[in-house]
Amino acid sequence: MPGPPVAPAVSIRSVSKRFGAGPLVLDGIDLDIAPGEFVCLLGASGCGKSTLLNLIAGLDRPTSGTIDTPAEGSAVMFQESALMPWLSAKRNVELALRLRGVPRRERGELALALLDTVNLADASEKRPHELSGGMRQRVALARALAQDRPVLLMDEPFAALDAITRDLLHEELERVWKATGRTIVFVTHNVREAARLGQRVVLLSSRPGRVAGEWRIDTTGRRIESPEVAALSVEITEKLRKEIRRNAA
C-alpha cells in the first residue's frame, strides 16, 4: 500500500503581488514544490520570477494569497556572490555558521567540509578578488548550504558567467543537490539552463506573471548539449514566444 501523501516543502496558494498602486506583478500563482524537488522558474525578463522568489524567502509579503514554507526557512543565493571582500573563502562560510549559532570551535572544520562539498577546499584561504567568478559562486553556494535550511532559493546565480563555467557549475550544483537532498527553486531566463537542471520547469507568463506551462523531466544525466535538452528547449521556447507575443498584442 502506498504511504500517506508527503506535504509539500513549499505551498503557494492564489498568490498575487502588486507594489503600491501599480499593476499586478503576479496574479493567482498556485504551485506546490515537493521536498527534495529541483524546480526551475522560467520566464521573460520582468515576468515576476524574482518577485516570487523573494516572497518564498519571506523578504516580502504577497498582496493576497498564502505561502507555506518549512519553519526553518530558506537560504537564498543571488546572481552576485556578495562575499565579504576582506574575508577568505573559509571565513565567508564561517560567517554564515556563526550567524546560525554554530560554536566557534566547530566552525573551521565545518566550513572546510562545506567548501570541499563544492570542490573548493584548496582555495579556502583565498580572498574573493583572488578567485574567478565561478569560484566565487561556489563559495556563495557553500555559504548558502552553511545556513542548513531545507529550501535553497537561487536567483539567476550563473547568469553573469561564461558558457563553459556555467556548464561546469551546473554539474556541481546537480551533484550537491543529490548529495544534500535540498529542495531547490532556481530562477532563470535561460531556457536551456532550465531544461538542463530542473526536474520540473515552471513557465511564468509576462506581467502579470501567471503559471503558463509546466514540464516534468524524468531523464537523468542530462548535459546542456543532450538531445533531450535541445528538444525540450525548442518546445518551451515556442510556448515562451507565444506568451511574449500575446502580452505584446
UniProtKB/TrEMBL annotation:
**Highest taxon of the source?**
Bacteria
What CDD domains would the database entry show?
A: ABC_NrtD_SsuB_transporters (cd03293)
UniProt keyword terms in alphabetical order: ATP-binding, Nucleotide-binding, Transport
Q: Which residues form the ABC transporter domain?
A: 10-231
Which GO MF terms are attached to this record?
Answer: ATP binding; ATP hydrolysis activity
* Protein's name according to its UniProt entry: ABC transporter ATP-binding protein
**What organism is listed for this UniProt entry?**
Agromyces protaetiae
